[in-house]
Amino acid sequence: MSRFTSAALIVNAKSRRGQALFEQACKALDGVDFPVDAHAVEDPNDLEATVERALAKKPQLVVFGGGDGTVSGLVDLLVGKDVVLGVLPLGTANSFCRTLGIPLDVAGAVQVLSEGRPKRIDLGMIDDDYFANAATMGIAPKIAETVPHDLKKWLGRAGYLSWAAIQYAKFRPFPVSIDDGSGQPRVMRAVEVRIANGRYHGGQEMMEDAAIDNGEILVEVVRGHLRSRLLYNWAANVLRLPQRREKVTVFRGRSIRIDSDKPRPISIDGEVLATTPVTAKVAPGIIEVMVPA
């Protein structure tokens, strides 16, 4: 039986199949043994205000339904509040849910809310902005900046990958400087930089050295002078080949400074929200989240 006596559900209904998934989530939550104050938010600009209104009612559990960007965009509002976070995998990649081991179907995720356990986890930070799973420099923010409105909503992952292929044709490796405080900053030519709190990126396990509860932020630099190195690394990760760690330099610590030859965008769980230079940090054990028992 659940330890909760009250909960709030906030679903980003603008996301792909969001309204239908909201209804599915509400139906699944009918079976839990605590009341749920449910909100379907069709305008993403209203998400924060909806969370604030829900928090004013003092729920013990706050459930976010949406993609990784929805969770990262709202998790700041829970820091310092006496609530437990729950997550429903209603996005495209659902990397944060994968990191936590939450089932990727609504019924399974709801079962975690009622039968799972709370776990205290870290959040990553880019300067003063909290994020749940991972941030990226390279082609990912370029795709996020340019992808046509509603492409993911209507065409899903296939549409997103098609747009990614177009952007890949224009992509060029870039110089990056990493300072982990251990000495002189290290300058490399990179095809991707991953700033990781969790292990997954784009639905694939990419940052296997990351842990969501170890009190460290991890920065991976995939080195290369040719853009083909990026495809090689991605393919090796998907196929779990030993070569997936070739030309990957890993930095870890509580605070890591990242700079580049010019201001370059950084996508935070799929949303472009920062530009270099930045400081990547960890907020150890700052929130509780429901995970499988």
Automatic annotation (TrEMBL):
Xref: Gene3D superfamilies: 2.60.200.40, Probable inorganic polyphosphate/atp-NAD kinase, domain 1
Enzyme class: transferase
Enzyme Commission no: 2.7.1.-
Limits of the DAGKc domain: 2-130
Superkingdom of the source species: Bacteria
Keyword tags: Kinase, Transferase
InterPro entries named in the record: ATP-NAD_kinase_N, Diacylglycerol/lipid_kinase, Diacylglycerol_kinase_cat_dom, Methylgl_synth, NAD/diacylglycerol_kinase_sf, YegS/DAGK_C
GO MF terms, alphabetically ordered: kinase activity
Protein name, UniProt field: Diacylglycerol/lipid kinase family protein
Organism: Sphingomonas floccifaciens
